Amino acid sequence: MVTSAATRTIPSFQRVHLVLVKLGIDVGPVYRDLGIRERDLQDEPSGVTMVKYLELLSRISEEQGRPSLGLEMALARDVGSLGVLGYMVRNAPDFERALAITDDYLDLIMPGCRTGLVRLEQDCIWTYEMPGISPAKCRHEIEQTLMQFIGAARELLSLPQWYPTQVFFQHAEPQDCELLREEMADTLHFDHHYNGVMFPAGFLRYTISEADPKLLGLLEQQVQHSLDLLKHDNTLVGRITFMITSRLGKTEVSAETISSRIGMSRRTLHRRLSEQGTSFNEIREMVVLQIAKKALSTTDVSITELAQELGYSDSSALDRAFKRLTGFSPLSYRRNHTVLTPVK
């Protein structure tokens, strides 16, 4: 009997497709055999189920001679390639919060899967499971995800040379483990009762962001709110709103960068937003204005730092934009709208 988790669809198969193409894999024949159509590649809830996705990885691995396909896919990605989840963890104040976010929102990218944290005396083990699916069928997805965890830890904590002491797999030992040991850890456990990566417990306290704590708390609230809405209404406008909210101050936020992240051209993005009565600039201004208003009224963060976190070159650029949208300067808005309860 096929489990409900296995029959749920992958919300964004486009990211899977892009990494397979990046690896130079000829996906056409396998797509045709599995009935994966061009529209399944778009960043919308697709017709690619979890079971079909896992079969795809197994077929490519066997037919195209790539025994470590999952590992290859992980090595070709970074935190940003995880989509909404990647944007969220980059905004986390510390590594422990990043793991909690992953646990809360994994369902957006891998429906039905679960993560957990096993706390030992000196170490922790981050676990990942696909309930109801046999270890053999999900081997490549498991190896990919555990390697992504290792890569994310290196990236978020600025520890490019870190290697786990032990890694655990529920599936049987493959014939060739050389690449797994080279990229993951010397000590690998197979036929284990969970999949997981061991790391020092001290990692949990590592700081990811150096932003002002009050402003960081406000930004995290806004991202959390946007993502909560996205979980219930996964529309194009909802995804764009979340991506802008979570990328502000971290990297360039433009129609070009966002459209490339969701696998469509800038022209197509503009057309589809126009069909829904809005535009990229309108969404971006709405997000910036909402965050700026709340920061000015509930925190004492400097206008210079606020401008930087919102992606402006300096405070005068924020001043001009804010005045155009509200009729007030940021300083005058703060004087007239400060509330007694600050963001904690």
Can you give the helix content as a percent range?
40-55%
Unreliable stretches: none
Return Rg in Å. Answer: 22 Å
* CATH uppermost class of the largest domain: Alpha Beta
Number of discrete helical segments: 17
Distance between the termini: 49 Å
Q: In which order are the strands of the major sheet placed?
A: 1-2-5-3-4
Q: Given the C-alpha coordinates, what overall shape results?
A: globular
> Domains counted in the coordinates: how many?
2
Helix and strand element order: HHHHHHHEEHEHEEHHHHHHHH
Strand content: 5-15%
CATH topology name of the largest domain? H-NOX domain
Major β-sheet profile = 5 strands, mixed
CATH architecture of the largest domain: Alpha-Beta Complex
Structural class: alpha+beta
Mean pLDDT across residues? 84
| Beta strands, count | 5
Explain this structure to me?
- There is one protein chain.
- With 344 residues, the protein is an alpha+beta fold.
- The protein has 2 domains: 202 residues, H-NOX domain (Alpha-Beta Complex); 125 residues, Orthogonal Bundle (Arc Repressor Mutant, subunit A), CATH 1.10.10.
- Helices cover 52% and strands 7% of the residues.
- It is built from 17 helices and 5 strands.
- A 5-stranded mixed sheet has the order 1-2-5-3-4, with helices on one face.
- Helix 6 runs parallel beside helix 11, helix 11 packs across helix 14 and helix 14 packs across helix 17.
